[in-house]
Amino acid sequence: MKKKMNTLRALLRADAPLIAVSFSDTDNDRNAREAKEAGIDIAELRIDGFSRTDEDHVFAQVRAFVSVPLLATIRSAAEGGAWAGTEEERLALFRAVAPHVHAVDVELSSREILAEVIAAAHEHDTLALVSFHDFDRTPGTAELEAVVADAKAAGADLVKVSTMARSPEDLKRLAALLLTAGGDIPLTVIAMGAEGSASRVFFPGLGSRITYSFFGESFAPGQLDFAETTRLLRAFSPAYDRRRTARG
Predict the structure, then answer these.
(1) pTM
(2) Of 99, 138, 142, 144, which one is least surrounded by beta carbons within 10 A?
(3) What is the pLDDT of residues 154-192, one digit of tens each?
(4) In the annotation, is 160 catalytic?
């Protein structure tokens, strides 16, 4: 099993925002068929929440989504994930899956394995998405800018910043980050919670490259399901609507 050319890299170079849908390991043969029929841009496999994380089982889930660009996430418990193993085991799993997916997501805070995960990704022409999550608050501007700078310095191909929004001021701070801190690296910026739901539709218009959605069960507070996300993006993002229309 080997991935073909990195189609996700080409998608990220285009103007239109992308929708990622997150999946566990429940009935993924059916999920993969529905994902392809629905026209999702990225399938995020939340490996940290799989019922088993041995390589045979993980690779079976990867194979199910062979026709869709794949993002492999093994989220640490410290940043809201369900990973219960050691960092050594998580690194070994990242190394095993990196040749077979289009991107991996590793947290900036995972300093023990960060450099090795990025190196494993780049060895196989796999994108390294370096992420930062704060489920309690939205940090100040200087801290947010430092996160982006640190992720870039670590070798990220794409930086994701996801924080809990408690007020309109939090949304404004994250929007400003999109407008000022991106520049030479793609950014995905998300405000979580009810106050932040609008970010999942309107931040793509400011340059946020990926918005996350779900089929059936949400993986994060404030997410909109795939049908609603698609409907709203088509209404407010002409570039996204043109791409969906072209795909038929």
Answers:
(1) 0.94
(2) 142
(3) 999 999 999 999 999 999 999 999 999 877 899 999 999
(4) yes
